[in-house]
Write a structure and sequence with these properties.
mainly alpha; DUF8206; single chain; 297 residues; DUF8206 domain-containing protein; elongated
Length: 297
């Protein structure tokens, strides 16, 4: 929310829109937007984002509504949906996140957009300016209320959240090799049982059976590359290889989207990694340039 971040710092710096017009506008993050007469955006609540935070962060969470002028600077119809989602979260994980006057803040970023437009020489009617001036005033009031509340909150131990995410990443990284190990164990158990039945039904002597003492175990040996590689995991871009006479199969990733990919801060051997959208093989739509497959595959 680059617009909100830029607006927030200006709300804290200028008490009124007139002061902001005559002062130097602060822009912390480069942002681009289009001005239209009316703009109705449907916002989807992404409760999944909370799963990346440690449960101890629940008392430091606030909800900011950044386009609240149309709902008289109140949450409006969003509040029942938000409370339902938080209720589901509490029932599912026993984590209660409060949604009340202390944690709900209503702003309107249109006043900041108006300021940016004024700085670019775009003219507005007096009625428009009066509306945006009132919007700015209310947003400043909410910004100060938010800061006052945050000052009462104990700092969150960021190391707890980092530890949580590190643990989650380890689980994700281990899921694939653990699944493969499980498959190999089942394949080897099947081979052992076959040998046991063979011995039970055999009329060979002990000396002759000693030749069957050792069981040949089957596996595919991976070859480690000297560089990272982006491959496609779509079912149409891989080859399934059967292990011996078993029902166990392994995937061979034969489709190479980017033969040598040196993206920074990308966990390896992870399927559906959103960071791969930055791979040179992906176009602006997030699809592989060569094979037209989404980066999530």
């Amino acid at each position: 929310k680059s617009t909100f971040i830029n607006a927030f710092v200006n709300y804290l710096r200028f008490d009124t829109l007139n002061e902001a017009k005559s002062g130097n506008m602060e822009v912390l993050i480069s942002s681009k937007f289009t001005l239209t007469d009316e703009n109705y955006d449907t916002q989807t609540i992404k409760i999944e984002l909370l799963s990346h935070l440690h449960r101890n962060a629940k008392d430091n969470i606030v909800f900011c509504f950044t386009n609240a002028r149309g709902t008289f600077y109140r949450p409006g119809d969003t509040l029942p949906s938000l409370k339902k989602q938080l209720g589901d979260l509490k029932e599912r994980s026993s984590v209660e996140i409060k949604a009340n006057h202390d944690t709900l803040y209503c702003f309107d970023n249109e006043s900041f957009r108006f300021l940016a437009a004024i700085k670019k020489g775009i003219s507005f009617t007096d009625a428009d300016e009066q509306n945006f001036a009132e919007s700015w005033k209310k947003s400043v009031k909410e910004s100060l209320r938010l800061m006052q509340y945050l000052l009462t909150r104990p700092p969150h131990a960021v190391k707890d959240t980092l530890s949580l995410n590190n643990s989650r990443n380890i689980v994700v990284l281990l899921s694939k090799p653990l699944a493969e190990i499980g498959q190999l164990i089942q394949a080897n158990i099947k081979l052992i049982k076959e040998k046991q039945n063979e011995i039970k039904n055999s009329d060979k002597t002990i000396e002759e059976l000693k030749e069957n003492l050792y069981i040949r175990q089957i596996d595919l040996q991976p070859k480690k590359l000297g560089f990272p590689r982006t491959v496609c995991t779509s079912i149409s871009c891989v080859v399934s290889l059967q292990i011996g006479q078993t029902n166990i199969s392994k995937i061979n990733y034969v489709t190479h989207c980017h033969d040598q990919c040196y993206l920074n801060n990308v966990a390896r051997n992870v399927i559906n990694n959103p960071a791969l959208r930055r791979c040179a093989a992906m176009n602006s739509d997030g699809n592989c340039e060569e094979f037209d497959v989404e980066a999530k595959d």
